[in-house]
């Protein structure tokens, strides 16, 4: 990359570089369309560094990035900070502007461009932070913010501004419905007001919230209690509902028509295979609710999440397709741009003009300009201007991971996609050169986005470039055919479904690419978590970019040294047994730190295990199994269907080979049970129902089912009392694994455990107070394992449970305090507890 000229006035730049300045750049003969490829025939192919590209113009991008960084900081500060920063920045911009425009007294020349950059940066900060101050003032106008601090009871009318979404809870309660809205009228404490306050509404699923009546842009009346919003978020207050909503007014007629199209499209894709049924609506209308959880996890692991929902590439494909149709139809030139813009507006309406879709549209347009080849020098100013405009319209995008990834990916395409592609094509023959130029696009995006991805995932994916390269040719047909199906579905569901089946073929292939690449060896490399890891990777990336050419020259001169260095890097990434601190040698059973949930692993052979529950987080359990070097799960036991025990299943399926599954006969909660069993059926994994007395021999382990009986007790939680209880013997170590068993069932289980001492007890229900004292004391465990999340809302583990375990003489290992835990049988056959703190 060559930086733009920032050390002189624009007039001097125009004098010295007349061919590259925007003022003298010739206008194209016609509007850019899809028929104008990324490499026009008239453009010479650069063969060496002697044929450089025009330098990039950084004068607007750098101020935009500075304003973005300042906005991230001020959003979480006190309310008086943004106005103060805006005023100080405006004054600084005026002073710096005066200094930048004053000629030097000695030479009579204008000062260097860094003063102009500082002035522009201060002006950008003043603009963005000033807009934020206005947004905040409007949002906090009225009494709602005060009511939220006092947690007042209210009746409010809310304009729904996002699609309602379901969030599963970690217990047997119904899922939550969460939506964002804007208060148009509210009453509390004898006062009625009509503000424009952005809020979040939280309600329990059902009760009129999930039947489709509460639609986007409808106005609903809700009764409930106010609570304060989180600092740095758009919502000033949170409204927790009490009772069902009342729809005061439905969406406008145009939006009701759009809802009809979306509903008809969902009906048309319903017969499609599971992966295609989720991906086609995601790519076409931004509806990812039908995407299977394991596919979502696989796409996250392979850096393909932008393909499971509407992104800039989809916008570019749709706009390009409309432009191509307009040209082929021979429409007069003066009508082409309005028709293309109308098509873009219709597509945005179909996808919902929420911030993520608008952001995708803007970034997709800029990426098209960058890759089209005609006006690449204007791409960075366009990107900087787009960032400033978007942050002025919606300041809370500054703290959005999606906005950061989209902006950085576009920046990577502008800076590196073309030069990297040409450089790789110059040293590769024929089709390999063409493939290299195609690979440069995802490579540029992945390199610049990697530090942000580390913040989200905690590791570095090594298959993202390959996966995106393989999937890229499949995205246009999926999007175009899916959009055609959406248009036809309201007219004829049968016809729409027929076209949707055509879109399902490339969509299914995208899903297979994600699943296969997610299971590739060394598909991801461990990295430091949090901000430290992100900054470390960012610094390393910059160093490699700056010194990359030198390393390449050294590698050509000393190839054996390059091979040795590559071997050292590869060896550091490979999990070499005996050189790692985890897992400890000789481990028998391990507990995974998955938050508030259970995931316990019994080692049955090298690389094989019996897994009991998966916890609530797919990434956490997948990482734990990877760290334990488990590649095959001989038997997966799902003790019951609460989400804190089964929601991590996609992570297990995405990271290991599961041979068979044992489940409880009680399907409670029914929705979670149906989704879990459907996911297993889609993978073709044999599922067995647990029966008392069943015995499973898996490797060195023998597991016997002690519970549930055919008639579990009706008192207490039905799901908890139907938990599978296992008596496991592995190499002479006796384990009692109790799920979330409650005292009603524990009293019957202890009849099966009388006279048997256990080395390890998995404490029931995360150490809740509901323990059966006689079962715990009768088991006489040496070590007690508790799977529990830090700072959980349930008070687990309870003081009474810990006291009971102390009375039993057990060493207690807790995942909230110790992280991943393990029990080792040492060379003297002694049990040794280990904690990975």
TrEMBL record:
Residues 1-15 have a biased composition (Basic and acidic residues). Keywords: Cell membrane, Membrane, Transmembrane, Transmembrane helix. Residues 1-56 are annotated as: Disordered. The chain crosses the membrane at residues 60-78, 84-101, 307-327, 357-374, 380-398, 443-471, 483-510, 530-548, 560-579. NCBIfam families: ComEC_N-term (TIGR00360). The lineage of its organism: Bacteria, Bacillati, Actinomycetota, Actinomycetes, Micrococcales. Residues 24-52 have a biased composition (Acidic residues). It is found in: Cell membrane. The keyword Membrane applies. It is a multi-pass membrane protein. It holds the Pfam family Competence. The keyword Electron transport does not apply. Its main location: membrane. This is ComEC/Rec2-related protein. InterPro entries: ComA-like_MBL, ComEC_N, Competence_DNA_uptake, Metallo-B-lactamas, RibonucZ/Hydroxyglut_hydro. Residues 596-788 form the Metallo-beta-lactamase domain. One of its GO terms (cellular component) is plasma membrane. SMART domains: Lactamase_B (SM00849).
């Amino acid at each position: 990359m060559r930086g733009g000229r920032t050390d002189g006035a624009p007039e001097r730049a125009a004098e010295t570089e007349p061919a590259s300045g925007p003022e003298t750049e010739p206008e194209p003969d016609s509007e850019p369309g899809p028929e104008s490829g990324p490499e026009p025939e008239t453009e010479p192919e650069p063969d060496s560094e002697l044929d450089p590209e025009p330098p990039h113009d950084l004068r607007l991008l750098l101020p935009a990035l500075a304003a973005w960084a300042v906005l991230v900081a001020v959003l979480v500060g006190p309310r008086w900070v943004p106005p103060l920063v805006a005023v100080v920045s405006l004054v600084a911009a005026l002073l710096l502007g005066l200094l930048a425009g004053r000629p030097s007294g000695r030479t009579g020349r204008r000062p260097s461009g860094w003063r102009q950059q500082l002035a522009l940066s201060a002006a950008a900060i003043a603009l963005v932070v000033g807009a934020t101050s206005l947004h905040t003032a409007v949002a906090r106008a009225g009494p709602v913010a005060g009511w939220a601090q006092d947690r007042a009871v209210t009746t409010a009318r809310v304009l729904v501004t996002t699609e309602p979404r379901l969030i599963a809870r970690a217990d047997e309660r119904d899922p939550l419905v969460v939506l964002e809205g804007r208060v148009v009228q509210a009453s509390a404490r004898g006062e009625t007001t009509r503000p424009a306050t952005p809020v979040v509404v939280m309600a329990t699923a059902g009760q009129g919230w999930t039947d489709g009546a509460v639609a986007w842009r409808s106005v609903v009346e809700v009764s409930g209690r106010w609570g304060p919003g989180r600092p740095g978020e758009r919502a000033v207050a949170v409204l927790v509902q009490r009772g069902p909503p009342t729809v005061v007014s439905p969406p406008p007629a145009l939006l009701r028509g759009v809802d009809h199209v979306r509903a008809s499209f969902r009906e048309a894709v319903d017969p499609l295979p599971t992966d295609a049924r989720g991906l086609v609506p995601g790519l076409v209308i931004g509806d990812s609710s039908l995407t299977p959880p394991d596919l979502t996890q696989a796409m996250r692991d392979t850096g393909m999440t932008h393909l499971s929902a509407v992104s800039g590439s989809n916008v570019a494909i749709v706009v390009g397709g409309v432009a191509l149709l307009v040209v082929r139809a021979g429409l007069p030139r003066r009508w082409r741009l309005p028709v293309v813009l109308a098509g873009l507006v219709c597509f945005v309406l179909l996808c919902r003009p929420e911030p993520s879709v608008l952001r995708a549209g803007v970034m997709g347009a800029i990426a098209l300009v960058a890759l089209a080849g005609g006006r690449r020098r204007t791409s960075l100013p366009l990107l900087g201007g787009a960032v400033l405009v978007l942050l002025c319209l919606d300041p809370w995008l500054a703290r959005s991971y999606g906005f950061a990834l989209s902006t950085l990916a576009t920046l990577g395409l502008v800076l590196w996609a073309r030069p990297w592609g040409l450089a790789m094509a110059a040293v590769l023959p024929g089709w390999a050169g063409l493939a290299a130029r195609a690979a440069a696009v995802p490579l540029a995006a992945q390199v610049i986005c990697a530090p942000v991805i580390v913040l989200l995932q905690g590791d570095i994916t090594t298959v993202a470039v390959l996966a995106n390269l393989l999937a890229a040719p499949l995205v246009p047909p999926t999007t175009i055919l899916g959009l055609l199906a959406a248009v036809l579905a309201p007219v004829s569901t049968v016809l729409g479904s027929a076209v949707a089946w055509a879109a399902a073929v490339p969509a299914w292939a995208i899903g297979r690419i994600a699943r296969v690449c997610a299971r590739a060896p060394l598909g991801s490399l461990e990295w430091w978590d949090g901000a430290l890891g992100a900054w470390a990777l960012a610094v390393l990336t910059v160093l490699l970019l700056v010194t990359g050419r030198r390393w390449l020259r050294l590698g050509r001169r000393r190839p054996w040294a390059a091979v040795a260095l590559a071997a050292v890097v590869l060896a550091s990434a490979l999990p070499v047994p005996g050189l790692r601190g985890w897992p400890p040698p000789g481990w028998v059973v391990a507990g995974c730190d998955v938050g508030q949930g259970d995931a316990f692993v019994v080692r049955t052979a090298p690389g094989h295990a019996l897994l009991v529950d998966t916890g609530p987080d797919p990434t956490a359990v997948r990482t734990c199994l990877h760290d334990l070097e488990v590649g095959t799960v001989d038997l997966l036991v799902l003790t019951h269907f609460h989400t804190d025990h089964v929601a991590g299943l996609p992570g297990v399926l995405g990271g290991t080979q599961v041979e068979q599954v044992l489940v409880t006969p009680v399907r409670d909660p029914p929705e979670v049970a149906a989704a879990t069993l459907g996911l297993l059926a889609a993978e073709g994994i044999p599922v067995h129902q647990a029966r008392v007395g069943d015995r499973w021999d898996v490797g060195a382990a023998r597991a016997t089912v002690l519970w549930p009986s055919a008639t579990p007790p009706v008192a207490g939680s039905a799901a908890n009392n139907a938990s599978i209880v296992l008596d496991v013997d592995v190499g002479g170590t006796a384990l009692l694994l109790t799920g979330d068993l409650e005292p009603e069932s524990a009293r019957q289980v202890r009849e099966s455990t009388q006279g048997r001492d256990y080395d390890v007890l998995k404490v029931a229900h995360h150490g809740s107070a509901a323990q059966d004292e006689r079962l715990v004391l009768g088991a006489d465990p040496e070590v007690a394992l508790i799977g529990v999340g830090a700072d959980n809302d349930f008070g687990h583990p309870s003081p009474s449970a810990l006291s009971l375990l102390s009375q039993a003489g057990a060493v207690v290992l807790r995942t909230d305090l110790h992280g991943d835990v393990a029990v080792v049988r040492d060379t003297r056959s002694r049990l040794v507890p280990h904690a990975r703190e």
